[in-house]
Design goal:
The protein is an alpha+beta fold. It has 2 domains: about 45 residues, no CATH class; about 70 residues, no CATH class. The strands form 3 sheets. The protein has a 3-stranded antiparallel β-sheet with strand order 2-1-3, with helices on one face. Strands 4-5 form a two-stranded antiparallel ribbon. The chain has a two-stranded antiparallel ribbon with strand order 6-7. It starts with a strand and ends with a helix.
């Protein structure tokens, strides 16, 4: 399987922008992200079609209330929101604020063992308590 990498950022006018890289190595995406960073922008590098587990080092850097995003490859504070498309609006779920993957994704549940068997309302309650 070829891994597609995306670099997401906000332009100076606040509009969202992205660029795709169709290769297995994130080198090009990382280099592009660094060039955006030099311009004062805040890029996010995302794996579009492969989920990554947290490393032991990343496990130690977890803050309370964060959920591992296996596509952003970072701990994120998931937020409750729906996706608005041209033809429909999805149901509101806890989602990564960057890549918008929800807690219903198999790999999000797998790499965050604490939420593997919980429903959405139980996850929201537990995260609010932490």
């Amino acid at each position: 399987m070829d891994i597609t990498w995306k670099v997401l950022w906000r332009k100076e006018d606040g509009a969202k922008a992205f660029r795709k890289f169709q290769n297995n190595s994130p080198k090009e995406a990382v280099a592009f992200g660094k060039s955006l960073k030099k311009q004062g922008l805040k890029p996010n590098i995302i794996s579009s079609n492969k989920a990554w587990p947290p490393t032991k080092e990343q496990e130690q850097n977890r803050r309370s209330g964060d959920i591992w995003c296996p596509y952003c490859i970072k701990w994120r504070r998931f937020k409750l929101f729906a996706l608005k498309k041209k033809l429909y609006t999805s149901e509101a779920f806890l989602r990564c604020p960057i890549c918008t993957i929800s807690t219903n994704d198999f790999y999000v549940r797998k790499y965050n063992g604490m939420i593997e068997h919980m429903n959405e309302s139980e996850m929201i309650k537990r995260l609010a308590e932490s």
